[in-house]
Hints:
Blueprint: H1 3-9, H2 21-33, H3 36-55, H4 66-74, H5 90-104, H6 109-120, H7 125-128, H8 133-146, H9 158-165, H10 171-185, H11 195-204, H12 211-216
Helix pairs in contact: 2-3, 2-4, 3-4, 3-8, 4-6, 4-8, 5-6, 6-8, 10-11
Amino acid sequence: MTDKEHETAAPYAGLPFPRTDLALKALRQARDLESPAIFNHSLRTYLYGRFLGERQGLQPGHDYDDELLFVGCALHDAGLSLEGDGDQTFTVDGADLAARFLTDQGVAADRVEVVWDAIALHLHPDLTARKRPEIALVTAGAGYDLGPDPAHPLPPGYADQVHAVLPRLHAAAVLYDTIVDQALAKPHKAPPFSMPGELLRQKTGTPWPTWQQLMAQEPSWHDYDQYPPTT
Length: 231
C-alpha cells in the first residue's frame, strides 16, 4: 500500500472495507465529491449491505465481487454532488458519473455495467432484489442505514462502532434537502410518482396530476375523448 493509499484507509482501520487500489480510489472519489453526511451514509451502506448479505449466507469474494459492491455503495449517491448534478434523476446521473470514473480507471465494461445498475436502480428494491448480490446489497444497505430492519438486528455494539468512525450527521435530513434542492432547481429531475417527485411534492405541496390529466397533455392520442364509448 502506498503512502497515499495508507492515508486514505487509515481512518477506517477498524472497519472491513476492501483495500484494493480501485476500492481506495472510489473511496477518495466519493469523499471528494460528496458532502460529509452523504459520504458517511455511502460507506455505512456498504457495511450494512455486507452484513445483510452475510445473513443470507453470502460471503464476500466468494458469492459476489466485494470490490464492486464497495464501489457501488461508495458512489451510489454521487448524483447528489455538485459534479454529479446533471439533467437526469440523481440515480441515473450518479450511475453515469460512476461509469465514467470506472472506465477512466480501466475497469472492464461488464464490471462497469454492474455498478451502473446498482446505482441507477437503488431506489427500486423490488427490482434489485432479483438482481445479482452486488446490485441487490447496495439497495439493501442504503435502506438499512436509513431505517434498520428489526428482523435483522446488528450484533451488539456494532452500530456504535460504525457511528464512531462514520457519524450520522443527520443523514436522512441531508439526503432529503439535497434531493429537493436539486429538484427545485431542475423539476424534471423529480418526475411525478418517482421518489424524488414525492419528496418535491411534500416540500411544495403541489398536487400531482391525475392519470387522466397526464394522458390529456399535448401531444396526446386523446384516448379519453368521448370515453367511455356509448353503445
